[in-house]
Amino acid sequence: MAKQPMLKFVQIDRDMPQKRDATVRREDFNEIYAEYATAKAEEQASRCSQCGVPYCQSHCPLHNNIPDWLHLTATGRLEEAYKVSQATNTFPEICGRICPQDRLCEGNCVIEQSGHGTVTIGSVEKYITDTAWDKGWVKPVSPAQERAESVGIIGGGPGGLAAADMLRQAGIQVTVYDRHDRAGGLLMYGIPGFKLEKDVVQRRNDLLAEGGVKFVQNCDVDPAKFAEIRAAHDAIIIATGVYKSRDLEMPGSGAKGIEKAIDFLTASNKKSFGDEVADFDNGRLNADGKKVVVIGGGDTAMDCVRTSIRQGATSVKCLYRRDRANMPGSLRETQNAEEEGVIFEWLSAPKGFVGDGNVTGVMVQKMRLGQPDASGRQAPEVIEGADYVEEADLVIKALGFEPEDLPTMFGQVDLPVTRWGTVKAEFLTGETEMEGVYAVGDIVRGASLVVWAIKDGRDCAEAILDKINAKAAIAAE
């Protein structure tokens, strides 16, 4: 009788890849987790219970076939595991690194619910695809037949690149127009290297280019450019993301030393490429030797506090108006930040800033949690008489992002937007009311997860292909 390769969660404990010591990893921007060895990856994959109804899969936005590629990994069929993983996910090695698995697949693992500790799905996913790259199994797109139809994609982030990949597989001519000098969007310029090393993103960009995707970099799309792009293609996809930072209008908010998270993170990432960054070199966007206060509790705030530690800040504190249990960011990231020396000031909110020209502190008001608000979360209430000043040389606002005013930027008054400024587009297809114009990712959803942008890009590409094929069929009759 063949030995059962799976359901070993009772005999084998959950074991993450080794995490570098905090005192070491806070000195560089390298990823903090080591890679699984083959035996360890197979062992951890074998813990999967192969559920009849896999909640890990149903709670993954891409509905990745997780049980199957865990089984293939556990039985040493790694190339097949990669093919199954790649079938539903354009960037599995990126999702394996940055997805909040504790809130998605792993957080819904059945054996986790039974007290045995979740399968380390994200780490195995990362291992599978990194091995595939090392073994040469990852190949550029090579469509069976080239087609004359073309699609222009405005924005080179995960949503746009996922759509580009799917369209090229079908032989469609694809051009990506991106505002930055490197494609990837927040993957390249927003997320720090200790979560996602940039060569991981760049090799995907290179692969897409090798497969025939054309990139137009440093491309600011104004009304004239939008009209040009629309005229040049059979369809266009708006995948700009949301880059407008939410702000704080309160006493002292105009002082020097109060910066936006996206500016701070972009400067740090550009510096890591060896680029010249004047505002980093002159100290404005550099935490070295400073007391840093980050305002916010999401993943962007975690990126900022951990980046500040690595830049050499003398102290780093994070102000969040709710408690740990109500943080919107990954609990795993919060733990990593605390290990590295970040201090969290829970139930604390800013009410103004101190300083004569340059910021010297944040006026903080202490909070308590009251009745649930419209979202169902307990609303923070001010505790009167508990205010204090938190000293700071650099304050970073990580309060989330909003969409830019695209109808004005693009000169398209007919581009439909919601009251929040996001583009109105059909669910699953991304189609807007403008003929041949689609939209995907955060510019439709609002600030969200990379994995959702990938799903939107793939779904939109499929919808565009359906429409192109339908037109071609009619023309052939």
From TrEMBL:
<dbReference type="GO" id="GO:0016491">
    <property type="term" value="F:oxidoreductase activity"/>
</dbReference>
<keyword id="KW-0408">Iron</keyword>
<feature type="domain" description="FAD/NAD(P)-binding">
    <location>
        <begin position="151"/>
        <end position="457"/>
    </location>
</feature>
<keyword id="KW-0004">4Fe-4S</keyword>
<dbReference type="InterPro" id="IPR023753">
    <property type="entry name" value="FAD/NAD-binding_dom"/>
</dbReference>
<feature type="domain" description="Dihydroprymidine dehydrogenase">
    <location>
        <begin position="25"/>
        <end position="136"/>
    </location>
</feature>
<dbReference type="GO" id="GO:0051539">
    <property type="term" value="F:4 iron, 4 sulfur cluster binding"/>
</dbReference>
<keyword id="KW-0560">Oxidoreductase</keyword>
<dbReference type="Pfam" id="PF07992">
    <property type="entry name" value="Pyr_redox_2"/>
</dbReference>
<dbReference type="Pfam" id="PF14691">
    <property type="entry name" value="Fer4_20"/>
</dbReference>
<protein>
    <submittedName>
        <fullName>NAD(P)-dependent oxidoreductase</fullName>
    </submittedName>
</protein>
<keyword id="KW-0411">Iron-sulfur</keyword>
<keyword id="KW-0479">Metal-binding</keyword>
<dbReference type="InterPro" id="IPR009051">
    <property type="entry name" value="Helical_ferredxn"/>
</dbReference>
<keyword id="KW-0521">NADP</keyword>
<dbReference type="InterPro" id="IPR006006">
    <property type="entry name" value="GltD-like"/>
</dbReference>
<dbReference type="GO" id="GO:0046872">
    <property type="term" value="F:metal ion binding"/>
</dbReference>
<dbReference type="InterPro" id="IPR036188">
    <property type="entry name" value="FAD/NAD-bd_sf"/>
</dbReference>
<dbReference type="InterPro" id="IPR028261">
    <property type="entry name" value="DPD_II"/>
</dbReference>
